[in-house]
Amino acid sequence: MKKQLFYSLTSFFLVVMSIYFVGCASQGGSESSSKAISDKELGLRKADVTTEQKVNLPPVKYTEESPGTGKLLPTSYPTAPPQIPHTVEGFLPITKDNNACLNCHSPEVAKDMGAVPIPESHFIDPRTGKKLDHVAGARFVCVTCHTPQANAKPLVQNTFKPAQ
Ligand code: HEC
Ligand code: HEC
User: Fold this and answer.
1) Is residue 74 in some structural domain?
2) 69-79 pLDDT, tens per residue?
């Protein structure tokens, strides 16, 4: 009885090992037949990744709508930051002392400016979960998350579909 168990375990082990070796062999085969990818093809910008010279970014046409005239685009998923439907010309850079976005989007003034008020989530300290009386530091640089709408082709095609 014990001997039988020993034999069946051994043959099981041999089967597993042979599958493993076949797997390794076929992997090695495909590796040697694939071509190396050149430095220039690695990044999205299709330029040598080791130098900043001669880097031409694809032209991007950002929206020129002034605030109040743009149209919202659907967001990719329910909690995604909405894209900015108006130009940001003259509003950047955001500095410690000058954040033009707040001039229109602060809850105190938004209504009068016809703008969407900054939501409550932006006043919550992400570390403590406590409500603050000012926009949380992590939300201060609005353009970290909100980007102006642009007519740009995807650099990499994908089949992503927004969640419903
Ligand atoms: C002069 C006032 C003004 C300034 C400055 C301004 N906005 Fe706006 N923003 C608006 C108005 C008005 C809307 C409403 C819709 C529109 O413009 O098409 C809006 C819409 C938005 C929306 C879309 C909100 C939604 O409902 O989904 C975002 C995001 C946004 N702005 C971000 C910004 C950011 C970031 C900045 C700073 C770089 C900024 N805005 C500066 C007036 C302004
Ligand atoms: C860390 C990322 C992040 C930063 C930074 C950020 N936001 Fe947002 N914002 C979001 C996300 C995500 C949403 C959608 C979910 C929500 O409402 O919290 C949003 C929503 C909004 C909306 C739409 C509110 C609505 O009711 O439809 C406005 C307006 C807005 N943000 C303005 C701003 C402004 C102005 C700043 C800078 C002071 C800013 N945001 C900074 C992520 C960010």
Assistant:
1) yes
2) 999 998 888 88
Coil, strand or helix at 131: strand
Most trustworthy range by pLDDT among 7-16, 127-136, 155-164? 127-136
What is this structure's pTM? 0.80
Judgement on whether residues 81 and 126 belong to the same structural domain of the protein: yes
Task: State the pLDDT confidence band at 105, using cuts at 50, 70 and 90.
Answer: very high
What residue owns the CA closest to ligand 2's atom 36?
A: 142
Residue nearest atom 28 in ligand 2 by C-alpha distance: 118
Mutate which of 122, 125, 141 for ligand 2? The one with the most ligand atoms within 8 Å of its CB, which is 122
Whether 82 and 6 map to the same domain: the answer is no
pLDDT at 106: 98
Q: Ligand 2: distance of its center to the CA of 97 in Å?
A: 20
Question: How many whole angstroms separate alpha carbon 96 and alpha carbon 73?
Answer: 29
- Indicate if 96 and 142 belong to the same structural domain: yes
Rounded CA separation 81/89 (Å) = 20
Q: Is residue 52 domain-resident?
A: no
- Nearest-atom number in ligand 1 for the CA of 69 is 18
Contact present, 101 and 142 (Cβ < 8 Å)? yes
Q: Which residue CA neighbors atom 30 of ligand 1 most closely?
A: 84
